[in-house]
Amino acid sequence: MSDTRPIGVFDSGLGGLTVVHELREALPNERLIYLGDTLRCPYGGRSIDAIRTFSREITTFLMKQNVKMIVVACNTVSAVALQDVIEVAGNIPVLGVVGPGCRAALHTSVDKRIGVIGTKATVRAGAYGNGIRALDERVTVYEKACPLLVPLVEEGFAENKVTELMLEEYLDELVDFGVDTLVLGCTHYPLLSKQIHRVLGGRIEVIDSAWWTAREAKQILGDRGELAVEREGNDRFYATDMTEEFTRLASIFLRGQMDSVVEIDLHNELTEIQ
Amino acid sequence: MSDTRPIGVFDSGLGGLTVVHELREALPNERLIYLGDTLRCPYGGRSIDAIRTFSREITTFLMKQNVKMIVVACNTVSAVALQDVIEVAGNIPVLGVVGPGCRAALHTSVDKRIGVIGTKATVRAGAYGNGIRALDERVTVYEKACPLLVPLVEEGFAENKVTELMLEEYLDELVDFGVDTLVLGCTHYPLLSKQIHRVLGGRIEVIDSAWWTAREAKQILGDRGELAVEREGNDRFYATDMTEEFTRLASIFLRGQMDSVVEIDLHNELTEIQ
User: Fold this and answer.
1) CB of A207 within 8 A of CB of A5?
2) What is the pLDDT along chain B (274 residues), one digit of tens a residue?
3) Which of A2, A5, A17, A180 could cross-link A68 (Cys pair, CB 3.0–4.6 Å)?
4) Minimal Cα distance from A44: which residue of B?
5) CA pair distance B259, B146, nearest whole angstrom
6) Residues A92 and A102 grouped into a single domain
7) Of B210, B232, B257, at which residue does a domain stop?
8) Residue B243's domain is classified under what CATH number?
9) Cβ of B46 and A245 within 8 Å?
10) How far is it, in rounded angstroms, from Cα B204 to Cα B63?
11) Are the C-beta atoms of B210 and B24 separated by less than 8 Å?
């Protein structure tokens, strides 16, 4: 039996397309529905109440599209509002990017000293630290907010010496702390993977949450007998604001073809749903 | 006669508090009402339609507070939605930060070669270029988007070598272009004034739009006989989202005391108004 219902994926903006990229690699037969809340991104600096409200709105919208699973590609939402998504999603499985990152880090670290980099909201919530310690309380986790990395990636400075200097500023502390594993706790950071490896000098294992999330999504759907055997139709992309840079940014993160994008007014959509 | 009605000031976020700082210096008797749209900032990457809608909503809210003048502290709004503010404001004067910056630059430049730095939205709209050329079409204006400067200031890297390297990346082109005057076309940039002077090496005059805006606001109210002779009550601050970093950021920009802040839901406020 082929379960042709789509997988719903959402993020505060377009960074979550790095997770779409990995889902496409791991699950080429699955049809994806992506929503980027470009009108209200970035969530990183918003209050927790605002992030919870936004997450419930988006989940309600995705449920209306008859998705069989929801992947929360946003670290901030996974950190502070995953429970809200689970509540609204009811019986279908929900997978945030934080859990797979925690499990992979724990599996990888030998010395049980793990570093995590992310946005301020993710770090402030202590999401990875709490998640990892819940699995093994002997692990020491050092979480570090790196808020400049997102704009540097988005502005095309990934290859510039400014970014390398910034990475040194941010990562030196983690190296001094003696971590043997570093979790990339933000959708944008896989695009700095090469530079991060260079600054770390090969001494530290780097965990890409997006890659591990796609792997776990495949496992969950397989266990439930809900995999699609063959692809039916194209992926669908929704955005809450069609910014002028949409196409440029999408191509950075997706590293692949984006079929047409539909702009939606979430408030109107939800009013119609009610 | 003392006109004790307040002056309304708004910005997409907290950067506009640099304008409040200058207004307080120039007009110590005036009571100010500030609204920072922290729930939806930054506007720089949003579509023009979204920015126009937001500006109309905020102006409607300020009008309800019986303001005698509206100062648009946001360069992006001044660039793309000033006409919307003027329409909603009706008979009271509206002053954006772009106009005063243009007039001051034209007055200062000897060679008639002017550089402007700002957010992408401000530069994309060509606001300063169009404004300056409307005053004198012989002037050559070189506008340059510097999107990393806002996060660098907000993250406390103003004094760091990363910011100096970034400023060199951004400003070298303008120096090569031979400008003799540089307009700081973003609320945040006055906080980099010292570093900008250092990178420019004293060869170029720097125009702070916020300072000139406060000067023009005083002139306009004086001409209309609407100045307050003495202060009645404290300034009032509204924000659409009380983010965790509100206090830290406000103190960077305001360089002075912020009385209590009230969080408002703009949609509810406007529904009540209707």
Assistant:
1) no
2) 799 999 999 999 999 999 999 999 999 999 999 999 999 988 877 888 999 999 999 999 999 999 999 999 999 899 889 999 999 999 999 999 999 999 999 999 999 999 999 988 789 889 999 999 999 999 999 999 999 999 999 999 999 999 999 999 999 999 999 999 999 999 999 999 999 999 998 889 999 999 999 999 999 999 999 999 999 899 999 999 988 788 888 988 998 878 789 999 998 887 764 4
3) A5
4) B243
5) 32
6) no
7) B210
8) 3.40.50.1860
9) no
10) 40
11) no
* Structural domain harbouring B191: 98-210
Whether residue A252 is contained in a domain is answered as yes
Is position A50 within any domain? Answer: yes
How far B99 CA sits from the closest chain A CA (Å)? Answer: 25
Please check whether residues A217 and A81 belong to one and the same domain.
yes
Tokens of B222: 């004086």
A104 and A162 assigned to the same domain: yes
Instruction: Tell me what ipTM this predicted complex has.
Output: 0.72
CB contact under 8 A, B241 and A46: yes
If one counts the domains in chain A, the total is 2
Residues 6+ apart with CB under 8 A from A224: A93
Strand partners, A145: A118
The residue length of chain A stands at: 274
Which chain B residues contact residue A57 at CB under 8 A? Answer: none
Structure tokens, A170: 């941010």
User: Could you give the count of Cα atoms lying within 13 Å of B179 in the half-sphere of its Cβ?
Assistant: 27
**Which structure tokens are listed for A124?**
């402030």
Q: Which of A41, A74, A102, A146 is the catalytic position?
A: A74
Number of H helices, E strands in chain B: 13, 10
Do B187 and B162 fall within a single domain? yes
Inter-chain contact A39–B40, Cβ cutoff 8 Å?
A: yes
In this structure, are B176 and B78 located in the same domain? Answer: no
A95-134 pLDDT, tens digit per residue, is 999 999 999 999 999 999 999 999 887 898 899 999 999 9
Number of H helices, E strands in chain A: 13, 10
The reported pTM is 0.81
Residue type (1 letter), B72: V
Interface of B with A (CB under 8 A): 39-40, 45-47, 50, 120, 124, 147-148, 151-152, 155, 157, 160-162, 165-166, 169, 241-245
